[in-house]
Amino acid sequence: MKSSYNTLIIGAGLSGLACAAKCQRQGVDFLLIEKQSRLGGRVGSIMQDGFVLDLGFQVYNTSYSATNELLGQAQVDYLRFQPGAAVHINGKFKVLSDPFRDPASLFQTLTFPKATLMDKWKVQKLRQALAGFDPGRCPEDRTSTADYLQNCGFSQTFIDYFFRPFFSGVFLENELSTASQFFKYVFSSFNRGYASLPAQGMQEIPDTMAREIDPQRLLLNTSVECLLPNKQIRLGDGRVLGYEHLVLTGESVQLSSPYKYEYHPVCTLYYATSVEALYRNYIHLFPEDDLLNHVAFVSAIAPGYAPPQETLLSVSVLGDATHSATLEAEIASRLSHFYGGTPKHYRLIHNFNFRKGTLSQKPGFFSDTKPSHPEVIFAGEYFLNGSIEGAVQSGLNAFATLQQRSRN
User: Fold this and answer.
1) Segments forming the whole domain that contains residue 64
2) Is the Cβ–Cβ distance between 55 and 44 less than 8 Å?
3) Over the stretch 328-363, which tens digit does the pLDDT of each residue have?
């Protein structure tokens, strides 16, 4: 390792990887530094007992154009959920989907009991109004998602039985207090693409980005202690590196700016079962349950997530659930109630409690001034939006800024 580089990139989450990949392609002299042993930040997977466990229930939207372009010709096999959801109502699952992309759902969608004809008509109008919505180009109206949906004229029942449970699973907060600007972006993205899983887990996404990066330009298991004068940094092991340009991504921005990010917590539990269930290719919502937000049969979508003859379920509970000593048993009991069998038919594989589940994006998030520095380039989802695409695009923007500064 050299003592100085043209560009140092701190953090190998998706923003850092995107910036580094562009540097590699353009022949920039760079080093990407990551404090963990794994690439990808909060997007990733681990292996346990033959199961692939994503770090929280995560999906890749196939409409993410910047990420798709960055991945290029790499063979990531995306396996799709059906659009919409299966909603548990009065003891039965009812499907609400997009009949244009899921024709088999037409009858169930038309007869979905918690949506009026006006609600269904307004959904189609909303699809048209938000087609191709770009939060970076459309002025923010500084309203919450809840207020926006009410202003659109949707019935409260439909909001409570579909929009609230579905988008709570995205925002990881059930008040729908997230900025409507982000709702518009997510809604538009889901209507242009499909929620999907890479065949071997979400870790495929950062790992694929990293394949074109020279391993000699990756420094893992290394923290950055502080920034020093004269364009230098001190690493956690005491070494000092110099640079001409510095890119801080994600929470490493705090090395230069005191801003603190806010997140929504979530508890994600993985269970294995042999119980068969209906509508396993949809995400399942539970608007009448006071604990479960959603359940996904991830190995029904991507069989590589589980060993043969086993089905892997991802269960999401909003908030910080570490206080509940009986949570795991209670969820097994509820799964047996919803899907059949007994609690013993649902074997806990792992319980993740993420205090930093998703970025909090309140009204004003998209129009508020973000931290900046004349000599440091910042990147990360906070600087665009809290999505995979937002993180990647921010990394690409950082590279564009790097190029501009190099020319000046």
Assistant:
1) 47-80+196-202+263-359
2) yes
3) 999 999 999 999 999 999 999 999 999 999 999 999
